[in-house]
Amino acid sequence: MEARKSIWEQFVEKKQGWIGGTLTDYDMGEVAKTEIVDFVLRPNGESGMWFEVSGKEFSCGADTKYLGLTGDGGKNEVVFSGYGGHRWSIAKGG
Fold first, then answer.
1. Tell me, which fold does domain 7-91 have in CATH?
2. Dihedral, CA of residue 22, residue 64, residue 8 and residue 4, to nearest 10
3. Who contacts 38 (Cβ-Cβ below 8 Å, separation ≥6)?
4. Angle, CA of 71, 63 and 72, to the nearest 5°
5. pLDDT tens for residues 34-48?
6. What is the structure's pLDDT at 63?
7. Are 72 and 80 in contact (CB under 8 A)?
8. How far is the C-alpha of 8 from the C-alpha of 90, rounded, in Å?
9. Residues 81, 89 contacting (CB under 8 angstroms)
10. Residue 10's closest CA among 44, 49, 39, 32?
11. From CA 44, how far away is CA 73, in angstroms rounded?
């Protein structure tokens, strides 16, 4: 039986559906937006994993131990909550 994939692994596998969409950071003073160019999941320390959404002008990410999804996104949008309540979202283009 194949191991169940984490939500973070699923985002990386399905990144083509999000690339070209919008990465929005709600904690950069004013709301900042950039185009999504990649999704990354890599080791972070001895037992952690780092999930990151890379944009043209900036990136947002966190250790998956501290990263969560919130229920306040719109259609085709996912909102994340990271360290210290840092909020950012991804939205599909088109």
1. Protein Yojf; Chain: A; (2.70.180)
2. -160
3. 15, 19, 53, 54
4. 10
5. 999 999 999 999 989
6. 94
7. no
8. 13
9. no
10. 39
11. 27
Distance CA 44, CA 61 (A): 12
For residue 32, what are the β-bridge partners? 25
Which pLDDT score is estimated for 28? 61
d(CA 54, CA 25): 12
Token digits of residue 7: 């939500």
Q: What tokens does 17 get?
A: 């559906």
Where do we find the tokens 């919008």?
A: 22
Domain ranges across the chain: 7-91
36, burial (CB in 10 Å: exposed 0-12, middle 13-18, buried 19+): buried
Q: Under 8 Å CB-to-CB from 12, ≥6 apart: which residues?
A: 39, 40, 41, 51
